Amino acid sequence: MKVLVLNCGSSSLKYRLFAMPEESVLTKGVIEKIGTEDAIHRYGTESEESSLTEPIYDHREALSRVVATLTSKQAGVISSAQEIGAVGHRVVHGGEVFSSSVVLTAEVKESIRAMSALAPLHNPANLLGIEAMEEVLPNVPQVAVFDTAFHQTMPQEHYLYPLPFVLYQRHKVRRYGFHGTSHRYCASRVPALVKHDLSGLKVISCHIGNGVSVTAIERGRSIDTSMGMTPLEGVMMGTRSGDLDPSLHQFVMEREGLSFDELASMLNKHSGLYGISGISGDVRTILEARAKGSIRATLAFAMYEYRIRKYIGAYAAAMNGVDVLLFTAGVGENSPLLRALICSNLTYLGLALDREANEQGTGERIISSPASAIKVCVIPTAEELMIARDAHALVIGLQRDEE
Ligand code: ADP
């Protein structure tokens, strides 16, 4: 079965076509600037990428282009759209309703819509993609895979904010956590790497990309995670502040004459590495500036590392120990410097890094020395593969039920 995985934003969409259960990627692509005359469609493999600029006015049109490209004579990888047996959508917020992936129905869509208040930038865009796909491939079952679902195992004392309880009862104000599909995938790779079942392991998973989150995973279940009701809470990120004193909001708004929307925009888009360095939220750019002696880039990177390390310490305390520390996503997979800095202050836990494995190895691997009390791993994340697996499994289940 071919499974099309979609990640729809408000003006962009990413896609990847998998052959399942072989788990091979047949092709992938991205369309940006949807809604404009000069939308850009890039597709193909890393070695052979094609690019096309043309007017694409909405998501339905964009998805029609995707299907046309997948089946085209020149660049196509399938002979007809009928080969697509399932579509898997990344959906950001599943609230308390979804603790696992589900086949999309009118009721599921209604729940996703209802959760838009919790993720106003993401859920409406995810829904746009779902509804457009229903029009483009009306007979293909679609599956929603939620970023929040993996964290639904958090106990109440970890997910509640110490606020009047009525806010939770009335409005579901609580911590949800994100990047769940990535943390779940990485945790699923741990047993093969460390030769130990997840049921006996305490794992701390660090997803360090543009967004950053740290998750405590005990016996394969998320018991705490650094992002909260929204992806703004937790560690410092590329452009997001992470944890702050809630009282500073009013102070800054009054002193700077900001509206609440302006403050929210500052915290999400102009803070973090970008806010401190004044240069960029992109770690590669920060590292380049730091290497050239930029004081603010050096400070930004030191704060970034420190705030991630603090969460690791907190989660070691939360679980009364840690057996595996794993790093994933753009920075986690590619910055030996950040990993080395974080690990250098965890020696009190018996952690010892293998310098060569950290600096020179590639791909999925252990980077701690054999004597280390904690196994440290690098695991390239594969959220799309996880979505393809869930979509495939659910649709196979549907077909069995129909038989
Ligand atoms: P997203 O969260 O958008 O999926 P990624 O997981 O791709 O993002 O991570 C993007 C981040 O990874 C950027 O800050 C980028 O600079 C960083 N990154 C990518 N390659 C490297 C590298 N070789 N060294 C350090 N950082 C890197």
UniProtKB/TrEMBL annotation:
Organism, as annotated: Tumebacillus lipolyticus
Record note on cofactor: Mg(2+). Can also accept Mn(2+).
Gene3D superfamilies, per database record: 3.30.420.40
Gene symbol of the encoding locus: ackA
Cofactor dependence: Mg(2+); Mn(2+)
Binding, substrate: 90
Record function comment: Catalyzes the formation of acetyl phosphate from acetate and ATP. Can also catalyze the reverse reaction.
EC number of this enzyme: 2.7.2.1
Subcellular location: Cytoplasm
Record-linked InterPro entries: Ac/propionate_kinase, Aliphatic_acid_kin_short-chain, Aliphatic_acid_kinase_CS, ATPase_NBD
Positions marked as site (Transition state stabilizer): 179, 240
Subunit structure as annotated in this protein's UniProt entry: Homodimer.
Catalytic activity of the protein: acetate + ATP = acetyl phosphate + ADP
Origin: domain of life: Bacteria
Residues binding ATP: 14, 207-211, 282-284, 330-334
Active site: 147 (proton donor/acceptor)
Membership in a protein family: Belongs to the acetokinase family.
Pathway linked to the protein: Metabolic intermediate biosynthesis; acetyl-CoA biosynthesis; acetyl-CoA from acetate: step 1/2
SUPFAM superfamilies: Actin-like ATPase domain
Keywords, sorted A to Z: ATP-binding, Cytoplasm, Kinase, Magnesium, Metal-binding, Nucleotide-binding, Transferase
Binding site for Mg(2+): 7, 383
Protein name: Acetate kinase
One of the record's GO molecular function terms: kinase activity
Transmembrane regions: none
PROSITE patterns reported in the protein's UniProt record: ACETATE_KINASE_1, ACETATE_KINASE_2
HAMAP family reported for this sequence: Acetate_kinase
